[in-house]
Write a structure and sequence with these properties.
Layout: H1 9-17, H2 26-51, E1 63-65, H3 69-82, E2 87-89, H4 92-98, E3 105-108, H5 112-117, E4 126-130, H6 135-144, E5 148-151, H7 156-168, E6 174-180, H8 187-200, E7 205-209, H9 217-221, H10 231-234, H11 243-249, E8 252-253, E9 256-259, H12 271-284, E10 287-291, H13 298-306, E11 309-315, H14 318-334, E12 337-344, H15 351-358, E13 362-367, H16 372-377, H17 388-401
Parallel strand pairs: 1-2, 1-3, 3-4, 4-5, 6-10, 6-11, 7-9, 7-10, 11-12, 12-13
Antiparallel strand pairs: 8-9
Helix pairs in contact: 1-2, 2-15, 3-7, 7-12, 8-17, 11-12, 12-13
């Protein structure tokens, strides 16, 4: 059948005989585990393909497509503000020639309908820019696959942010969100360990605490006494934040920069502040891990919608499966790729079967470590001492993400 076309012969046989076996039969369990593992491997391979489509090309200049002199002058002023020199296209043929190679495409409202009608092909990094917004502009933006429709001068901050990302060449920087599939799953611990493991590979890594009610992830990392910015210092920031300035101002401990909540009274970061922090982080770090709460407010959605991968951490038990099934429906509406990391339990569910039931790939299974809690309470962090299982799980995830040692 067409469904079996891409499966190895042994998998086709397994699928064929599996339903005929008694559910209590040992071979039936083996069959289902084999099938679940094969499908999970395929999903992981698909994620890898999207994350690493090929070798990165030399960073090209952004492209401006407009014949409106007033609009062009305004966009050029913003380009000069971030030190980038764009390519100009004043007509459709010129726009189509430069369409595929540009790092960012800014399409003026005057040429957007005609360019959309010419069907230049879908690509990332398209922004439609206008002084006034009308029905035709929105229709053209949809046809072009535009990520934003910006009105100048009101939205110039967002355009500057996009231009800065194009200039730095880091629009695809590795941003990973980590969320618990059920309460007490250990998501914060895994997020901290993953960021530490990235720093251990020599990467410039940033751990962001997006849970104001989590008590402060700096305590989990053993860095609560290290001086530097905390969320209350940037919680109301808007517009562009300098990436280099942010990196210099954040606490640095064990080679890892951390933006954590403190124990004060300020308990909210607006979505604009989170957007600015993430944009600055993408420009200045090589790996970013964000510990997000199990609440789907605007700030959480801001994180997962911008992440290259959202990792759901959950223990291998029935309650966690039920909770994760309910949460995934909401999460996948905003997130791109979603995968799971499971924490093994004695006589618990099989991780491969759990991931297959959720319909997402399994990145790693981490064995519970009875020494971990004591190490964290003592201020040694999540990768101290004998936490080999957690370290190995983080290594598997980093390998999947293609984050090799610097």
């Amino acid at each position: 059948s067409k469904k079996a076309a891409g499966l190895p012969v042994v998998m086709v046989i397994a699928i064929s005989i599996g339903p005929r076996l008694s559910t209590g039969h040992g071979l039936a369990v083996v069959v289902h585990r084999l099938v679940a593992r094969w499908f999970c491997d395929q999903r992981v391979s698909a994620i890898l393909g999207r994350m690493h489509p090929g070798h990165a090309k030399e960073q090209a200049a952004p492209l401006i497509v407009t014949a409106d002199e007033q609009l062009l002058e305004e966009i050029m002023r913003l380009c000069a503000a971030v030190g980038v020199t764009p390519v100009l296209a004043g007509d459709i043929p010129a726009a189509r020639r430069a369409w595929g190679e540009a790092s960012l495409v800014m399409v003026g409202a005057d040429l957007a309908p005609a360019l959309a009608h010419s069907a230049p092909g879908r690509r990332e990094g398209v922004i439609v820019v206008a002084h006034t917004l009308g029905t035709l502009i929105w229709s053209a933006a949809v046809q072009l696959g535009a990520e934003h429709v910006l009105q100048l001068p009101a939205d110039q901050g967002e355009l500057i942010e996009a231009l800065a990302g194009a200039m730095d060449g880091r629009s695809e920087a590795c941003l990973v969100a980590v969320i618990g599939g059920v309460g007490g799953a250990g998501a914060s611990t895994f997020a901290g360990a993953l960021a530490l493991a990235a720093a251990g590979r020599g990467l410039h890594a940033l751990l962001v605490d997006a849970d104001p009610f989590g008590g402060g992830i700096d305590i989990l990392m053993g860095s609560e006494d290290v001086e530097g910015l905390r969320w209350p210092d940037v919680a109301n920031a808007q517009g562009r934040i300098s990436g280099d300035s942010l990196r210099r101002a954040l606490p640095l401990h064990a080679g890892l920069s951390t933006l954590s909540w403190d124990r004060g009274e300020h308990l909210e970061a607006n979505p604009a502040a989170m957007r600015s922090v993430l944009a600055a982080g993408r420009r200045s770090f090589e790996a970013m891990v964000v510990d997000v709460p199990r609440t789907f407010d605007e700030t959480t959605l801001e994180v997962v919608s911008r992440s290259i991968l959202t990792i759901v951490v959950l223990p291998e038990n029935v309650r966690a499966l039920g909770s994760a099934m309910r949460m995934l429906g909401r999460l996948q509406q905003a997130a791109g790729d979603v995968a799971v990391v499971t924490r093994t339990q004695p006589h618990g569910l099989n991780g491969q079967l759990l991931a297959a039931r959720l319909g997402v790939p399994l990145l790693a299974r981490v064995r519970s470590d009875r020494h971990l809690s004591a190490a964290i309470d003592a201020g040694y962090g999540p990768l101290a001492g004998r936490t080999k299982a957690l370290r190995h799980g983080c290594s598997k995830v980093l390998d999947t993400l293609g984050l090799e040692a610097a």
